[in-house]
């Protein structure tokens, strides 16, 4: 299956699969002067799927997108859309369209002219354009707004018009460059669901880039986590969340308690690590071959930890810590507490939603525990 | 607090009002009265339209009037055609220091006076000038060539003088066009030409119109360039006004000419605005 090369993190994913791919990037590299923005990235996107590239700003995800759209030429490597190489094909001749970060709707045109722009360029007859524009507006749930101006629309409506403007051209691949970034939180949550529904309705391959992990996790079929110009891991949201391949992925996707420690005991698959503060944590190696005395990074999800009033309730866990509540972080269903243990380490713990601990106060003694399988360890790099 | 704000408002308004009333309203009222006055005898005047009658009755005046208008329109068009790519390059393609350096280069000619600048063209274009000498040296012509004192030389001078006034509004409007909008045009299948026609030019329209209005008015009211670079056949309407006021001492007719020029420029500017669907508020705001 997937494998990670120690040097450059190259993924050979999708080849095992006989399903048709819409977009294939092979050994894509882009250098700007001395800096390498994208280093030897290969991936394939299956037809009709929602593929996200998730990474912090400056990781090279925009560069990949601009290369696919045709605004940048790769330094080396190949981009294939439906099997055809796109090298030296100008952006206006590629079967891909892009939804820009700030949408880039044409302010000098009304909605119908915006959506009809690409069709006019393709030389379609006027009545056909009007019919197609009407149809696509129907599909995005905004019928009859042809003659409105761009600035008369709300943020969410603009979003849908920007997608319609691309979809009316029936592209093989639709690229989306953080299109939800400019929206407020409520609308963003709503648009996530809507985008996913639109993608299913149009049955087109979406390639979505974002730095917002929840956007990627909610919408995508496949996610590539990118950092420093390379793909750290490609997989479904669940894989990235529960089985991260690298320390970066473990830290970037979702929240984690994070420690640095050294391996103190090693017995086959089980190891025990001592953190800098002195907390002893047992863990499974998950085949990562950690040896005695080696430095490691330890990740533990707050929701993997069980809270109890009585230490006896946690007997089944191999990690048990007693401490006091040092902070209450109330956030409705996602409420958490910070527990300070005897050695002074602070551990973030998600409270169960049963309301059993709703009356917990600051300074109250609690017991926490978790199974060794829930911690993820990575050997220190370098 | 309110009173203070009001006082500040009037204090700021005063210079503007003074400027408007003293330099524009009063002289123009005087000019209007002057143009409607006819000298019937020594020191005797009567109110009549006779000066305007003279203007419409004399073919030279009418001819010069129309020629000046046509040439100014042409100068505006040439300036626009040259300034547009220059502005596009400065606003959209040049980056950082290059951008400001190029912008400054457009400004540099305006550090010397218009007179000296025009003399510069004379040095280049006259019979014993640089171009003539170069052409002879290259063996392309046998004798010295006179390139001054014709319509082409005058047009070069007019375009050169007006360049900055076209570039500044164009750069400003083009800079406000988001690069992503241009890219979206290409992404959706547009060619360079269609992106220019459907996206860049409509966006730049307020800049194009305001630049054109300024350049047109400057050309129409220019006196120095047509006088120095234009020949005997390239009579400019401002030269007629000058000669009526200063040479012939016929202020009445000069005032009438001045009013005709004002009406002409107003009509052409109004017509252009109507034609392009722009408003003065939109282009100047």
From TrEMBL, chain A:
This is Spermidine/putrescine transport system ATP-binding protein. GO terms for molecular function: ATP binding; ATP hydrolysis activity; transmembrane transporter activity. SMART domains: AAA (SM00382). The lineage of its organism: Bacteria, Pseudomonadati, Pseudomonadota, Alphaproteobacteria, Rhodobacterales. Keywords: ATP-binding, Nucleotide-binding, Transport. The keyword Nucleotide-binding applies. One of its GO terms (cellular component) is ATP-binding cassette (ABC) transporter complex. One of its GO terms (biological process) is quaternary ammonium group transport. The keyword Magnesium does not apply. Residues 23-253 form the ABC transporter domain. PROSITE patterns: ABC_TRANSPORTER_1, ABC_TRANSPORTER_2.
Automatic annotation (TrEMBL), chain B:
One of its GO terms (cellular component) is plasma membrane. The keyword Cytoplasm does not apply. Pfam families: BPD_transp_1 (PF00528). SUPFAM superfamilies: MetI-like. This is Spermidine/putrescine transport system permease protein. Gene3D superfamilies: MetI-like (1.10.3720.10). Residues 65-272 form the ABC transmembrane type-1 domain. Keywords: Cell membrane, Membrane, Transmembrane, Transmembrane helix, Transport. InterPro entries: MetI-like, MetI-like_sf. The lineage of its organism: Bacteria, Pseudomonadati, Pseudomonadota, Alphaproteobacteria, Rhodobacterales. It comes from Sedimentitalea nanhaiensis. Its main location: membrane. The keyword Oxidoreductase does not apply. The chain crosses the membrane at residues 7-29, 69-90, 102-124, 152-171, 204-224, 253-273. It is a multi-pass membrane protein. It is found in: Cell membrane. GO terms for biological process: transmembrane transport.
